[in-house]
Amino acid sequence: MAEITESKNFIHAFIEEDIAPGGQFAGKTVHTRFPPEPNGYLHIGHCKALIIDFGTAEKFGGLCNLRMDDTNPTKEDVEFVQAIQDDIHWLGFDWGDRFFYGSDYFEKDYEYAVELIKKGLAYVCELTPEQFKEYRGDLNTPAVSPYRDRPIEESLDLFARMRAGEFEDNKYTLRAKIDLASGNFNMRDPVIYRIRHMHHHRQGDKWCIYPMYDFAHPIQDALEGITHSLCSLEFENHRPLYNWVVEHVSVPNHPRQIEFARLGIDHTVLSKRKLRALVENGYVSGWDDPRMPTLCGLRRRGYTPASIRNFCDRVGVAKSPNTIEYAFLEHCLREDLNETAKRVMTVLDPVKLTITNYPEGQSETFQVENNPNDAGAGTREITFSRSLWIERDDFLAQPIPKYKRLYPDGPECRLKGAYVIKCTGCVTDENGKVTEVLATYDPDSKGGDPADGRKIKGATIHWVDAETCVDCEVRQYSNLFDDPDPDAAGKDFLACLNPHSLEVLTGCKAEASLRSAKAPESYQFMRLGYFCPDSKDSAPDHLVFNRSVSLKDSFKPAK
């Protein structure tokens, strides 16, 4: 498991060299881009990439474009395009007027492909997909294409007819003429265009040939004036092809590609294909299910932009793949919420508490602080009466050793922000289950401090007023997978699902101030943890809270 330490960002070091006097981009504005494929929702792995792209531009006072990589017509959806924009804005980044689609460049891609053919650097190939694999060769055997020396005019004619729709799918491809004996198989005359008679979500039926990503992406970067194309490590072996394209077509700029390691997190999967399977097969309620690693799922669970940005910054940028503990992501959220979340009282497993010496029909109010770490957060008003709700585990009929909460003739305890009480007994049903706890209060202990200054040996108990409280539902989440590495080779990730990843608690009781609670504001439910109103399911008469994290910090940062 990777240790979390802050490290120098090697990408920044490269860029500093590039923009220094005599560097490749001396005197130029640093310009990056974030090019998501709109075939799913952004997840925490994408978040690392977009923070690197947008954050690098911010650091150097530069620009970052948002470009939808919609060169593949089979998977794109406008729903995902809007969701991607929403997620990036939620994290606090903006692309200004620099929002593009890869398909905006289809005409230019085609022109540059024609240019390569005319230069003798591309040719139309007739190998079938099966033959292509057969003739690919190995480390000791060069690849083969009997069409490599096809005359330029013939390739130009066939390529034009491919565009015109004369041929069925896979009949022809356009391949770059590079090096069939290269040790890098990406350079063995890669396919740069293929025939796909499919409807495109923006281009409609205008095109039936589509450029491959490795050909289109460097052209798009160059046309947008990108200086640094920052991408994940799997594209490292594609960099020679990236450079070959921008060097052999007449684009106005030559960007530099720099690769970094992807983010890996235990107990989860970050493959969009697998996340899509979870959604489409009903294993989760949707892309925004709070157990999902998607940004919309994390947002619904109560994660804040600051916590996620801090997590990505502290994970750092490296060349070597590593896996981060999910607990560290929760740790970053806990740190943020500890400073910003309001403290409120909510009872998840309620049992009635009756203050037997408090006058019936009487009630009073107390002012309690919203956040002890933030004086500016102010106070709120809570009501107190004879009938209250407390947590069932705050009472035991027969106490265990060192139990400091309520039990008959046990120690005095404080009701948070109200009075000191002493348990006198309980009421049970015919099955022996406790249905009501009985206690008396000290009228001279308002605010929890006895007038005589005596020491209170029992615990502080959270509670809600039974007369004014709000009914609510609480959804508690744990890891979606009980296997720390569900994405490992040879594993069926669906067999690794945790059947107990969601626990729904109904009949919970929340203090009246939460009646108007709305996402994305988060709350600390005393010793129970941090919770956020569900932005999807909550209504004034039916509050639903999603548990963000517990108060217990299971991750210990490196010193």
Map the helices and strands.
Elements: H1 10-19, E1 31-34, H2 44-59, E2 63-68, H3 78-90, E3 99-101, H4 106-118, E4 122-125, H5 129-134, H6 152-163, E5 173-176, E6 191-195, E7 209-211, H7 213-223, E8 228-232, H8 239-248, E9 256-260, E10 263-265, H9 272-280, H10 295-301, H11 305-315, E11 322-324, H12 326-340, E12 342-344, E13 346-347, E14 350-355, E15 363-369, E16 379-385, E17 387-391, E18 413-415, E19 420-428, E20 434-441, E21 460-461, E22 463-465, E23 470-477, E24 502-510, E25 523-525, E26 530-533, E27 543-549
Q: What fraction, in percent, of the residue positions are helical?
A: 10-25%
Low-confidence stretches: 1-7
Beginning-to-end CA distance, first to last residue: 16 Å
How many beta-strand runs?
27
Rg, Cα atoms, Å: 31 Å
Strand fraction equals 15-25%
Secondary structure class reads: alpha/beta
Shape: elongated
Average predicted confidence as pLDDT: 94
| Biggest beta-sheet profile | 7 strands, mixed
Instruction: List the total number of helices.
Output: 12
Reading side by side through the largest sheet, how are the strands ordered? 12-25-26-27-23-24-13
